[in-house]
Structures are given as C-alpha cells and as structure tokens.
C-alpha cells in the first residue's frame, strides 16, 4: 500500500485498489502522500510535521496520482506540498516538513497514561467488552483496546489503544512515519465527548501530525485521543502517541465533519473487533 509507482519526475501513482462502499480512507491517502513527498527528500531528513486537507471523497477502486512540489530545501529543513488527484479532481492537499535531527535538549511534559501492555497470550482471541483486540481492515496492524469504556455507555468507541505492526516494518524512519500516519486516522477522539449514532457522518476535514521522536511500530505504541468540541456540524479532537517506554513520539489533531447522514447509511468501521 505504501509502495508508489514513479510515473514522472515528482509524480507518483498508488495502484492499491480495492472495493469499499464507504470511499477512500483518509489515513491511507495521507500516508501515501507523505510517502510520495519523502521520495523527493534526502534520507537523513525524516518528516517532523504534516498538515492535510481532505477536499473530496476518494474512490478506493481507482488509482491515486500524487504530484509533489519541492517548495524548499534548506541547510537542515525541506518543505514539500503534495496534491492527490483522482480523475483530475483534487482529493487531498498535504504540506509536510522534513528536518535533519540535531543534538540538543530532550524534554517532554506529557506523561503516558498508566496502561498495561497487551497480553500477548490474548491477541489471538476474540474478547468482548473492555480490553478487546482490534484490527485495522486494510493494513497489517494490531490494535488492542486500553483502559475501560464508561459503564454507562458500553457501546462507546475506544479512544485509547495500543497499536503494533503485525509483520516487521523496516527500520526506515520515513516508512515508519507513513504507517503511523495511516493508523492515526483510524479512530476518533470525539467518542470521549459522546457516542455518535451509527448513521452520523464522521468524515475527516483536516489532519495534522507532529513527529517528535523516532517511532518503532514493531513495538507497541499507545494512542490516546481526547475530544475537545462538537459544534456547528464539526468536531475537533487531539491525540498523543507514546512508545512502550513512555516517550512522546507524536501528537495529532483533527477536525471532522459531524452531521446526520441524510440517507441513513451507517458509517464505516475502520477498526473492528477480531472474530
């Protein structure tokens, strides 16, 4: 999914296609756009931030074309813009910045929530309720629900999960950041404010990530999401991602469309309990 075909200078194509009645997953096209940008940057400059705007629904059964604009290459930073198109129409605009790591202080104010690592013996089992194993539908990542859902609302979506790749990911910082980008859009932090009805539209409008430290998705990463506001047909949440040893590896923020679906079509479940 994250291997793109170079069809011209700074022009790439994703040939990952599959049937999906709910449309192209935003985390996928954002991860692929970041991958395309990274192809044009020196290998010693991993991404440190991205900001993407989702402009139109995409069609997962058709390839996506990614056009990379090399806005700047400085002494230690590189800036890229990526336009993702299908059928000549823009589905995503993404800006990403890359930085050659420097020596200096390494401090963080955030403290990782006190959540036990997943029990390896339970990963192959289907577990009801709290502590469930979760899976992404279209990428090889295990999700394991952390914490407990409110007893008053057992149907609430999880907002705190452990995530880990099912198969080894090469020790390539840019590729690791792309996989993290994919998984960062799978859940919604709005579930900490309310339990959206199954027919509510929760479509990503924009998505931002800051990559603070190297991440290794061959080990567990804790994703902790918090909803901040639902108003005027939009919802906004933020999130923190921690390594097993408590390092803050990334932070994210997203604003989503939040409105009833006029046709009453249930929204997709990008994450499901294993069966």
From TrEMBL:
UniProt keywords, alphabetically: Hydrolase
GO molecular function: fatty acyl-CoA hydrolase activity
Segments forming a coiled coil: none
GO biological process, one term: acyl-CoA metabolic process
One Pfam family per UniProt: 4HBT_3
All residue ranges annotated as the Acyl-CoA thioesterase-like C-terminal domain in the record: 141-257
The Acyl-CoA thioesterase-like N-terminal HotDog domain, residue ranges: 23-99
Listed Gene3D superfamilies: Acyl-CoA thioesterase, double hotdog domain
Family membership: Belongs to the C/M/P thioester hydrolase family.
Name of the protein: Thioesterase family protein
Species for this entry: Kineosporia babensis
């Amino acid at each position: 999914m994250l291997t793109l075909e170079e069809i011209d200078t700074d022009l790439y194509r994703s040939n990952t296609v599959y049937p999906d009645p709910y449309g192209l997953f935003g985390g996928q096209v954002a991860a692929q756009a970041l991958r395309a940008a990274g192809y044009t940057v020196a290998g010693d400059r991993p991404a440190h931030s991205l900001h993407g705007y989702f402009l139109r629904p995409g069609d997962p059964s058709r390839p996506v074309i990614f056009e990379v604009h090399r806005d700047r290459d400085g002494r230690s930073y590189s800036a890229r813009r990526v336009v993702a198109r299908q059928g000549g129409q823009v589905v995503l605009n993404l800006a990403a910045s890359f930085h050659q790591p420097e020596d200096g202080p390494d401090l963080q104010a955030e403290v990782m929530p006190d959540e036990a690592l997943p029990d390896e013996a339970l990963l192959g089992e289907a577990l009801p309720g709290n502590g469930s194993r979760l899976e992404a539908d279209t990428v090889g990542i295990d999700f394991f629900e952390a914490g407990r859902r409110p007893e008053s609302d057992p149907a609430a979506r999880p907002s705190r999960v452990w995530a880990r790749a099912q198969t080894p990911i090469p020790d390539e910082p840019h590729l690791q950041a792309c996989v993290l980008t994919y998984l960062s859009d799978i859940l919604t932090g709005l579930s900490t404010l309310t339990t959206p009805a199954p027919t509510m539209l929760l479509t990503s409008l924009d998505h931002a990530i800051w990559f603070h430290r190297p991440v290794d998705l061959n080990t567990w990463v804790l994703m902790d999401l918090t909803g901040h506001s639902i108003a005027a047909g939009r919802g906004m949440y933020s999130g923190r991602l921690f390594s097993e040893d408590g390092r803050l590896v990334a932070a994210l923020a997203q604003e989503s469309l939040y409105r009833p679906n006029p046709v009453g079509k249930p929204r997709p479940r990008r994450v499901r309990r294993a069966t």
